[in-house]
Amino acid sequence: MPFPCEDIMSYEIIAIGDELLLGSTLNTTSHTIARKLFEAGWTCQRITTVGDDTTDIQDVLIPAIKRAEFLILTGGLGPTTDDITSEAAAHAMGLPLTINGDVLRKLENHNGFSQKIKEKLASMPFGSVPLKPEGDASGYLLIHGDTPLFFLPGVPGQAVALLQEKVIPWLQNHLPAQAVYYRVMRTFGLPETEINRIVYTSSIPENVTIGYYPVFPEVLISMVYKSPRGIAEGQTQNIQGDLYKDQGLERAINFWQHLISLLDRHVICDGDETIEAIIGDLLLRKHATVATAESCTGGLIASRITSIPGSSQWFERGVITYSNQAKMDILKVRQETLEQFGAVSEQTAIQMAEGLRRLAKTDYALAVTGIAGPTGGSPEKPIGTVYIALATPQQTSCQRFLFSRSENNHIPLTRTSIQQLTAETALDWLRISLQYGAHIYSSRYTG
């Protein structure tokens, strides 16, 4: 039978490890767990990070057990002396620490561990059940009172594997999930504030939440629709039966499509595909190829392109022509052009793109040249001045950009962010040319 929304399960994550507090390790494990559980219908109410300290672990664990309807704990299950999660949890709940025979037997074949370490890895609070006793990182489930506690390794790959193989199936069988419909799109070229204005000039349907997540230099937009009727036990948002009977879902989908039309060419993808993956699909459909010539970005564009598996089908080459001599030798930029207009100029960028297209014999060629800083700027060409040229089968176009300030117009961009913004803009221009046939690129950074 369906469950009402007020009964939908929420949970907390407790991430354990000194390395998280010291900033030496990014807590990607909690991020991934929260995202995957949300997509499966469970909402994380709180993520707490705590160090490898028995008292601190106890201080966050006991209140969390009282608040949450289930808990995910990550980290501190390893073989070293600072891995104290099991001991601290057992002490906090007044339980003895016991050695699980199944896990210990699996570890007996591990010649790299002493008997003491094997027993430590097999130790867990009394009443715990290993999630995967045959695995290298077993994890375990302990139900304390009425609250399930899932203890997972801190290593992202191990934790996520157990989450998908063991934790989510257990939750689907024992706890209700909410009917959640989730969409995300990637955008580029509009600041978060402008996207917010566009969204809120429209009428957002009931039970729909819109979120904005800047991932420089893009902005990701998400939509969450939560069914007011809930969903039957064991179902997830991937099982569409109940959802598609909900008229609220239809309104949410229509709103999302309307939002895509409002944002128009600024939408890279209705989904989570990267801009370079979208470009690859477009080029494959056209049976076309591209090459890149980079100066100020130092190969960043080519690196992003070649991160896509199979990019060799549509990416012919990338050249880094950092010096004037390289521009002349490889791309045949004329010396008089460099002397008269400089390396950072429209004329040079055009000759770079056209020279590369002739050299590589590709359908498209991208060229970038600019001043990434922090030195080298002038009143005429300040730091952040970039010329991007795109050579296509029809024509060669070039535009000047000024990537000097962030969207609030008072924080200077760094060398790295100027390079990232240059690479993104070049790729986005290629995407729009392939998708819409546009030779002129509209950007708030056009100088």
Describe what this molecule looks like in 3D:
The protein has 447 residues and is of the alpha/beta class. The protein folds into 3 domains: 170 residues, MoaB/Mog-like domain (Molybdenum Cofactor Biosythetic Enzyme, Chain A), CATH 3.40.980.10; 90 residues, Alpha-Beta Plaits; 162 residues, Maf protein (Alpha-Beta Complex). Helix content is 38%, strand content 22%. The chain has 15 helices and 17 strands. The strands form 4 sheets. Strands 2-1-3-8-7-6 form a 6-stranded mixed beta sheet, with helices on both faces. The longest helix is centred in the last third of the chain and has 22 residues. The N terminus is likely disordered.
CATH architecture of the largest domain: 3-Layer(aba) Sandwich
- The strands making up the biggest β-sheet line up spatially as 2-1-3-8-7-6
The major sheet is characterized as:
6 strands, mixed
Structural Rg? 27 Å
* Average pLDDT over all residues: 90
Q: How big a fraction of the residues is strand?
A: 15-25%
| Number of individual domains | 3
Count the beta strands.
Answer: 17
CATH class of the largest domain: Alpha Beta
Summarize the structure.
The chain is α/β, with parallel strands linked by helices.
Task: Please supply descriptive tags for the structure shown above.
Alpha-Beta Plaits, alpha/beta, Molybdenum Cofactor Biosythetic Enzyme, Chain A, 447 residues, Maf protein, 15 helices, 17 strands, 3 domains, disordered N terminus, elongated, 6-stranded mixed sheet
